[in-house]
Amino acid sequence: MPDSKNLTSKVVQASFWTVATRWTLRSLGLVSLVVLARLLEPEDYGLMAMAMTFVALMDLFMSWGFETAIVRHPDPRRDHYDTAWTLQFFNGLVCSTVVFSTAPFVAEFFNEPRLEEMLHVMAAGFLLMGLNNIGLADLQRNFQFSREFRYLIVCRLSSFAVTIIAAYLLRSYWALIIGQLTAAAVQLFFGYIVVPRRPRFTLSRSADILSFSVWLVVRNFALFATTRFDTIVISRLYSAEMIGPYDMAKNVSGLAISESLHPLSRALLPGFSKISDDERRALAALAKALGIYATIVLPLGLGLASVAEEFVHVVLGEKWAAAAPFMVFFAVGTSAQFLVAPFGPFLLAQGKSRTVAVLACTHALVFIGLVGYAAHVGDMVMIAACSAAVSVIVAPLYSRLGLGSWSTLGWMIRPMVRPLVAALVMVTAVLAVGTLPLSPAIMLTAKVSLGIVVYGGCLAVLWLFAGRPEGPETVFLDVAASLRRRVSW
């Protein structure tokens, strides 16, 4: 019991710091997004979306999960760190060379000559990433998320300032590229200051590292398909001016949902790793994590979908009005996708990287099929709708493929029932308000405030009516009590 309480305390504290980190970073990102949306044109974002489609493909080779392999390893030695860094460096070198040399062919494929020069410059980012300090994995492995918080904030503030200044001076897509390279350079520099580990070249533990990481590469290619296939399709069918609103809606939806919840997996992975040999305890922790994710993601996603028109008008500006219909579908789809996100760290902690890859590939195949059909018979709105539908369709498969049985589906859904009911009541209340003769800013504020009150009140009533069971509500109450004690102290 003392070990269990100590681990729970570490996970709660780690979750606090990861949430604080991501919310702070995303707040900066939101400010940056709003400012850049007013300084740059939709065409600039459309060009960047084309370039990032290819860059994201190459980035898969930089995402072998070497850091994850170190985090979940029961006892990593110096050779494990050095081997992981060596493999990472060679990946960065190869990716940088490929991006630079294939830039003319990519520009020809998209029929956009400006992409060649853009990719020549962006290739340098891969080399910088390859040199990053693999020792930063110790921050996650040892639950030192407060140090990671400071490191990431310094990096983001630096790139934020450079990007805004460049956008103001240049008023072109080059500001976005300069910001990306600045972020990579700052992360490289400060990474070796935060964790003073000096790497050396060696491949002595390559078999150990690659046996786990190779399946993460398969997963990454599948994730690329589910995040970029639609962009590739519309890039071939529509102009940059039309792609811009679509890509902006997709990014904003991810900003509000995925970026807020993804860091929790960084706290869950080392936590699940500590109890991976106790199946009953691990499953109980997974159920609690599913409830916590549902409690956060459902009001964020469904709430954003219900105020999409006002949000776009107030936050992005009138010239982005075409993004509102896309945002409705992307917000719903991202919500469904992240409801099952805890399965990732849960399976990785058990060393089941192959199962993670199978789940990702299944999602990708369904996504490609539905989006390809939508592109053939419909328009861009239908493509966005199908991308949302895929996440809803695939979510139940995590019960069968992730836990090995359909009988666990009810067990998986149970922690999500109260948050789902509360979120649906919230959406009903917000939509019932309709459109009043008020400014969009006042309408957005009123609807968001109403949604918060209705969701929180409904969730509390449902929890009390159920007899105050152990669940996400108790976790949030424990965290609130812990914060009060810290403030009082």
* Helical content (DSSP H or I, runs of 4+): over 70%
Could you give the count of β-strands? 0
Largest sheet: none
Number of helices: 22
Enumerate the spans where pLDDT stays under 50 for 5 or more consecutive residues: 1-5
Rg over alpha carbons: 22 Å
Set down the secondary structure blueprint.
Blueprint: H1 2-39, H2 42-59, H3 66-72, H4 78-110, H5 114-130, H6 137-141, H7 145-170, H8 174-194, H9 206-237, H10 240-256, H11 258-274, H12 279-306, H13 308-316, H14 324-339, H15 343-349, H16 353-377, H17 380-394, H18 397-403, H19 409-413, H20 417-433, H21 440-465, H22 472-488
Helix pairs in contact: 1-7, 1-11, 2-4, 2-5, 2-9, 2-10, 3-9, 4-5, 4-9, 5-8, 7-8, 9-16, 10-14, 11-12, 11-15, 12-14, 12-20, 12-22, 13-14, 13-21, 14-17, 16-17, 16-18, 20-21
List keywords for this structure.
single chain; disordered N terminus; 489 residues; 22 helices; mainly alpha
Structure description:
It is a single chain. Mean pLDDT is 80; it is low at 1-5. Helix 5 packs parallel to helix 8 (174-194). Helices cover 82% and strands 0% of the residues. It contains 22 helices and no strands. The protein has helices at 2-39, 42-59, 66-72, 78-110, 114-130, 137-141, 145-170, 174-194, 206-237, 240-256, 258-274, 279-306, 308-316, 324-339, 343-349, 353-377, 380-394, 397-403, 409-413, 417-433, 440-465, 472-488. The chain is globular. The longest helix has 38 residues, at 2-39. The protein is mostly helical and 489 residues long.
